Amino acid sequence: MTSFRSLRFHMDWQGQKLAEQIMQMMLLVSAVIAFVAGYVLGSFQMMMIVYAGGVTLTALITVPNWPFFNHHPLNWLDPSEAEKHPKPQVTVSSKKKGTKK
Amino acid sequence: MHSFGYRLNGLLTFSVTILAIMCAITSLSDNLNTPSPSAEIQVMNINWFQKQPQGNDEVSLTMNISADLQTLFTWNTKQLFIFVAAEYKTPKNSLNQVSLWDAIIPSKEHAKFWIHTSNKYRFVDQGNNLRGKEFNLTLHWHVMPKTGKMFADKIVLTGYSFPEEYR
């Protein structure tokens, strides 16, 4: 159940990068395996079936927000902690901007 | 990637693009095939040879067509469309081609065949030039792929001729 609850939240940044890399790699590998299988067996249908299987497997692994995509969460500062530290002020620069007339 | 829908869209788009590339490579692989087809056509009988009321010659003939086209099939072949055409020269036209018979061969097993048939389509000349005329019978084939480029080629068989007189 805990894994389903974590599906409600977005992936963290490292997870997104990982998901994209896994997706691209798995689709390319599926395509190569499918083509080789079809060519060797002499069956176009086999190539399509293997590729469709590869796409489905890739979808199951990379599209849902699985827990292993959330190993590097970005922890936002707690609001009570943030109040203790004032926001940095933008300092007015005393230097003249050289070229501006 | 940002959300479920975003990842799903990315996956579907990329997978379809890769599918297109796979189909292109599959079509290119057809060029690796070196076919060696063979065919023979015998004209068994000229059934009749008349001049029509409009003035055009018409002939009906019975042919024995045998061919082995199995090497034309690849893993990417959907079917083979073949037809037999009579080709001859007249003073009016440098090349006349009249389609006499055609067939669709759906698989490699059916590609080695023998058929005894009269012409499926009428053989009518543009004029009355056929008496004593020499003609070629050409077997054309179109290799129709499952994906990609269609190849077409033919075998020309020479040495046929019409009778000197109408019958």
From TrEMBL, chain A:
Protein's UniProt keywords contain Transmembrane? yes
Main subcellular localization, coarse class?
A: endoplasmic reticulum
Q: Where found in the cell?
A: Endoplasmic reticulum membrane
How is the protein disposed in the membrane?
Multi-pass membrane protein
Q: Which InterPro entries match?
A: Spc1/SPCS1
Q: Quick one: where's region Disordered?
A: 80-101
Q: Which is one Pfam family of this protein? A: SPC12
Q: Does the keyword Ligase apply?
A: no
Give TM segment ranges: 21-42, 48-69
The record's PANTHER family line, in alphabetical order, gives: MICROSOMAL SIGNAL PEPTIDASE 12 KDA SUBUNIT (PTHR13202), SIGNAL PEPTIDASE COMPLEX SUBUNIT 1 (PTHR13202:SF0)
**What family classification does the UniProt entry report for this protein?**
Belongs to the SPCS1 family.
**Function comment:** Component of the signal peptidase complex (SPC) which catalyzes the cleavage of N-terminal signal sequences from nascent proteins as they are translocated into the lumen of the endoplasmic reticulum. Dispensable for SPC enzymatic activity.
Instruction: Spell out the protein name for this chain.
Output: Signal peptidase complex subunit 1
Q: Which organism is it from?
A: Hibiscus sabdariffa (roselle)
Automatic annotation (TrEMBL), chain B:
Iron-sulfur listed as a keyword: no
Q: Which InterPro entries match?
A: SPC3
Q: What does this protein do?
A: Essential component of the signal peptidase complex (SPC) which catalyzes the cleavage of N-terminal signal sequences from nascent proteins as they are translocated into the lumen of the endoplasmic reticulum. Essential for the SPC catalytic activity, possibly by stabilizing and positioning the active center of the complex close to the lumenal surface.
Localization per Swiss-Prot or TrEMBL: Endoplasmic reticulum membrane
What family is reported? Belongs to the SPCS3 family.
Q: What keywords were assigned to this record?
A: Endoplasmic reticulum, Membrane, Signal, Signal-anchor, Transmembrane, Transmembrane helix
Indicate the transmembrane segments per the record.
none
Q: What is this protein called?
A: Signal peptidase complex subunit 3
Record's bilayer topology term: Single-pass type II membrane protein
Major place of residence: endoplasmic reticulum
Could you tell me which Pfam families the record lists for this protein? SPC22 (PF04573)
**Signal peptide boundaries:** 1-20
Instruction: Look up and give the organism this protein is from.
Output: Hibiscus sabdariffa (roselle)
